[in-house]
Specification:
This protein is α+β, with helices and mostly antiparallel strands. The longest helix is centred in the middle third of the chain and has 13 residues, at about 60-70. The protein has helices at about 5-15, 60-70, 135-145; strands spanning about 20-30, 35-40, 45, 50, 75-85, 90, 95-110, 120-125, 150-155. The chain is built from three helices and nine strands; from the N terminus they run αββββαββββαβ. Strands 1, 2, 3, 4, 5, 6, 7, 8 and 9 form a nine-stranded mixed beta sheet that branches.
């Protein structure tokens, strides 16, 4: 997975100590289909996810990540879920935890493919025929698919 330069700079100072980061999940919808990517690090199918750059608007980050990872242009239409991930320890020992902002995004254009090497596949799935996903990713996806005007918060 590509690590943003600002995270590498922080890691040079703090080593593998826990790092609190802000991230996005983009649930991109096209009719009755949803865009999913297969992660290169663990083979899991997920919506597009990524780290928000310092000073970047979270909705802008969602659109940027979809374009970078799947070569699809998407338009964020609403915030659907605010959550905190469980702590993660990466293979190199780095520890992180994320404030995740999940956005419902509408498809604009493009044919999905794994554009930046972070994923091995990118494709549309019918909403009623999804691959196996973690409980956490399924909850993010469902929040993006539900027709609720307000964002959900995990308490």
């Amino acid at each position: 997975m590509a690590t943003p330069d600002f995270v590498l700079a922080l890691r040079s100072k703090i080593g593998t100590a826990p790092l609190w980061l802000s991230g996005i999940t983009a649930v991109v919808v096209r009719g009755s289909e949803v865009l999913l990517v297969r992660r290169s690090d663990n083979g899991a199918w997920t919506p597009v996810t990524g780290i928000i750059d310092p000073g970047e608007n979270p909705a802008t980050a969602a659109a940027r990540e979809v374009l970078e990872e799947a070569d699809v242009e998407a338009r964020p239409v609403r915030l659907v879920l605010v959550d905190v991930t469980e702590p993660i320890v990466y293979a190199n020992g780095d520890e992180s935890q994320y404030l995740d902002l999940t956005f419902r995004c509408d498809y604009v254009s493009g044919t999905p493919f794994p554009a930046d090497g972070e994923n091995t596949e990118a494709r549309w799935f019918e909403v009623d025929d999804l691959p196996e996903m973690s409980t956490d990713m399924r909850a993010r996806l469902q929040a993006g698919l539900d027709d609720r005007p307000e964002a959900r918060f995990t308490l």
